[in-house]
Design goal:
The structure holds 2 protein chains of 2 kinds.
Chain A (H helix, E strand, L loop, with lengths): L2 E5 L3 H13 L3 E5 L2 H10 L4 E5 L7 H11 L4 E5 L4 H9 L4 E4 L4 H14 L10 E3 L2 E4 L4 E4 L2 E3 L3 H12 L7 H9 L7 H15 L9 E4 L3 E4 L2
Parallel strand pairs in A: 1-2, 1-3, 3-4, 4-5
Antiparallel strand pairs in A: 6-7, 7-8, 8-9, 10-11
Helix pairs in contact in A: 2-3, 4-8, 6-7, 6-8, 7-8
Chain B lengths: L1 H9 L3 H5 L12 H73 L5 H7 L6 E7 L2 E4 L11 H8 L4 E7 L2 E10 L4 E8 L1 H51 L13 H51 L6 H32 L7 E3 L1 H14 L12 E3 L8 E3 L1 H18 L3 E9 L10 E8 L6 H4 L24 H11 L3 E6 L5 E8 L11
Chain lengths: ~220, ~525
């Protein structure tokens, strides 16, 4: 019984989402605003958080950033706008995935399942990987740079492992979406792009001129060897 | 591959029969009206410019011809008067000399006439005592017109212009009644004529030069005067092409500033209005999403408890579910349309294998059939030569294109019979591939020629409006197909399928230098 926290100001949407997700077998808590979400999460951490981007008071982006600072909990943002700007801003605030209103309940449930599955650390390989001054211990879920632990979300961690597993090989966005997010062919490439950017700020000496996680134009990404 | 080849053999690839001259009768690309406008601008601009040039040339010619004429005739008259005066004075001097000499008896008339002081080119003719004497053999009394002769002999002095052997001559006759004689002097005006000829030549040349200069000036002035007009035309063409932020620069010309500012005001209003409309559509779509989210989640809950519902309630739930999907699609489509209208639609390009793309898109669309049940997709035939090509495409948009075309076929034309992916020109032609064509064939009755061009308009349903299925579409599907394809720089049209029904052809340009398969 995974606990899910819904942050949504529209009471009807909140109630209907709660009903739908409870039917899928989750324990659901819901709050109407960002401040409430942060304090509720601090009191009793949930295993996954759904945040609506348009919130009164501190908005969804800020809520997402605040939660991200204290936890690597999987976050799905819920947005009424699928415009690049909003999606990218949401992902950059630290969300792992996004769904667009109105979403199909089954699809949301599938996304939640995929995220919860990968937040359990037992699905990674067990040989430690390394590149540059970065060391990855897949079974412990730990990334170290210069020996210091780097805080990665589960999604970032899986993305890094996937890249480090195939050094020197170009991995397409589709491949990464499928392996890291569990999407099929039509996943949103922006998810990969933003996560790669976030990852670079954590493991690259100079994120603007990456040395390890390289973009291969029109093809995807690869880890330089 | 076997079925694909068999089909290819049965129906020769379109690329072949198409050759180069094929004109799809599908939606005119947005370039067509622009091209027409451009053409109109060109011919109109030339016409006006030519007219101004001609007007200037004619004006310059008329003016210079008139000036030349006046100059010529004034000069001629004044030269002639001057010459006539001088010659008359000369003739009278000579005449009085002759009269004095004739008074003294025994004068030899022949010697006398020879002794008269004449300017070069002038010849004297004397009538005295019923005899005629002349200094020149060629110019005798016969050279003097008869009327003048009789006039002078009757006692009236006279002066007359005549022509001898093509040279103008001035004949001055002086009666000498005191000695019953008449003295005539014939002055050759050859020199004057030559001067006048030279003058006429110079004036004609000047007039011609002036005319040419006038034409050149006209051409320059017209193109200069028309430049702002062609600026405005260019701007209008750009605006018609969707670049609503185009403005005209008035420069510092007061006359043009008025036009430019009026034009810019108009464009700004237009842009404002279009943006407001697009924003409104976008806002409405977004506002509708909240209640739709509640509805969708609630229906999902009801679906989960389906077995607890009475059969009547289950049917009601199906209706609710079906129309909720349709409503959701419509809101999505409207939002998509508003993005196109606002010009904020962006391509998110990925490099993909065209065959794989089409297969996946067809699968995805077949997965979620209209009634929500899983449907087996139509066969996808990949024609030879497609393998190994890479297409740069926005996958999400392409998937929507395929979904909309397949929905359209299942709503109005009995479903899709097959989907073909081919390169164009075909591999047999030997040339490099330029485009990928994705052809969706249906089993329907075909589409009348007249309806084909309207097919891609919003909410157009044509003669199919009465059909049962028409109440299930959103009316936006095909117009979105056209917009998505256009955003990729491609085009879409419809034509008759070889066997039965009609086919929709989506043509997407291949990214140049992308033929490398890049197996990584």
């Amino acid at each position: 019984m995974s606990r899910i926290l819904i942050v949504e100001d529209d009471e009807r949407i909140r109630s209907s989402m709660r009903l739908a997700l409870e039917d899928e077998g989750y324990t659901v808590e819901d709050v109407a605003g960002g401040e409430e979400a942060v304090s509720r999460f601090t009191d009793e951490p949930a295993e996954l958080v759904l945040i609506d981007l348009m919130l009164p008071g501190i908005d969804g982006f800020e809520t997402c950033r605040t939660l991200r600072r204290q936890s690597t909990v999987p976050i799905i943002m819920v947005t009424a706008r699928s415009d690049t700007h909003d999606v990218v801003a949401g992902l950059e605030a630290g969300a792992d995935d996004y769904v667009t209103k109105p979403f199909v309940a089954k699809e949301l449930a599938a996304r939640i399942r995929a995220l919860l599955r990968r937040s359990r650390p037992d699905d990674a390989g067990d040989t430690s990987l390394s590149f540059g001054d970065v060391e990855i211990e897949p079974d412990a879920g730990v990334v170290r740079r210069h020996g210091d632990e780097v805080h990665c979300t589960r999604t970032e961690f899986r993305l890094l492992c996937e890249l480090a597993d195939h050094p020197g090989k170009v991995l397409s966005r589709e491949h990464l979406l499928e392996r890291v997010w569990g999407y099929d062919y039509f996943g949103d490439g922006r998810l990969v792009d933003v996560h790669v950017r976030r990852l670079r700020t954590k493991v690259e000496p100079d994120p603007a001129n990456p040395r390890f996680i390289l973009t291969v134009r029109g093809m995807g990404y690869k880890l330089a060897v | 591959m076997a079925p694909a080849q068999a089909a290819a053999a049965a129906n020769p690839p379109v690329g072949d029969e198409a050759g180069g001259g094929e004109q799809p009768d599908g939606p005119a690309r947005s370039a067509t009206p622009e091209r027409r406008a451009h053409h109109a601008r060109l011919s109109k601009g030339l016409g006006l410019r030519a007219r101004v040039t001609a007007t200037f040339a004619i004006g310059a010619f008329a003016l210079s011809a008139m000036m030349a004429g006046i100059t010529y005739f004034t000069a001629r008259q004044s030269f002639l008067n001057e010459r006539q005066g001088a010659d008359q004075r000369q003739a009278f001097v000579n005449a009085s000399l002759i009269q004095n000499s004739l008074r003294s008896p025994g004068t030899q008339v022949n010697q006398l006439i020879e002794s008269v002081d004449t300017v070069p080119g002038s010849r004297s003719v004397l009538h005295t005592g019923g005899e005629w004497y002349a200094t020149s053999i060629s110019v005798g009394q016969g050279a003097i017109p008869a009327e003048e002769r009789s006039l002078v002999l009757a006692g009236t002095p006279s002066s007359q212009l005549i022509s001898i052997g093509g040279t103008p001559q001035l004949v001055i006759g002086v009666p000498l009644p005191a000695v019953h004689a008449a003295y005539f002097e014939v002055f050759s005006l050859d020199e004057l004529a030559r001067t006048l000829r030279a003058l006429a030549f110079a004036l004609t040349a000047a007039a011609l030069v002036t005319t040419l200069a006038g034409a050149a000036l006209g051409r320059w002035a017209s193109s200069r005067a028309l430049r702002p007009l062609s600026d405005v035309t260019d701007a209008a063409v750009a605006i018609a092409g969707g670049q609503l932020d185009t403005r005209v620069d008035a420069g510092d010309d007061v006359n043009l500033q008025e036009l430019a500012s009026a034009f810019n005001r108009m464009t700004a209003n237009l842009q404002d209005r279009i943006e407001r409309e697009a924003r409104f559509t976008s806002d409405v779509s977004h506002e509708l999403r909240s209640p739709l989210t509640t509805l969708s989640a609630s229906v999902a809950v009801l679906e989960g408890h389906r077995s607890e519902l009475a059969p009547r309630a289950q049917r009601a739930l199906d209706l609710l579910d079906g129309d909720l999907r349709r409503f959701t699609r419509m809101v999505d489509d409207l939002l998509e349309i508003s993005r196109f209208d606002a010009g904020s639609a962006e391509l998110s390009l990925d490099e993909v294998d065209p065959g794989e793309l089409v297969r996946r898109s067809v699968e995805a669309s077949a997965d979620v059939g209209e009634d929500g049940h899983r449907v087996v997709g139509p066969p996808v035939e990949i024609r030879p030569g497609v393998e190994g090509l890479r297409l740069r495409v926005d996958k999400r948009r392409f998937e929507r294109v395929m979904a909309n075309l397949m929905d359209n076929a299942s709503l109005y034309a009995g479903g899709v019979s097959r989907v073909i992916v081919e390169r164009h020109p075909a591999i047999e032609s030997g040339g490099p591939p330029r485009t990928i064509r994705v052809i969706v064939e249906d089993r329907g009755p075909g589409i009348p020629q007249l309806e084909r061009e309207h097919l891609f308009e919003r909410f157009y349903r044509g003669s199919r409006a009465g059909q049962r299925a028409s109440s299930r579409g959103t009316g936006l599907g095909l117009s979105l197909v056209a917009e998505h394809v256009r955003l990729h720089g491609g085009r879409v049209w419809t034509e008759d399928a070889p066997a039965q029904g009609s086919r929709f052809v989506v043509e997407l340009p291949l990214h140049p230098n992308a033929s490398d398969a890049g197996s990584s």
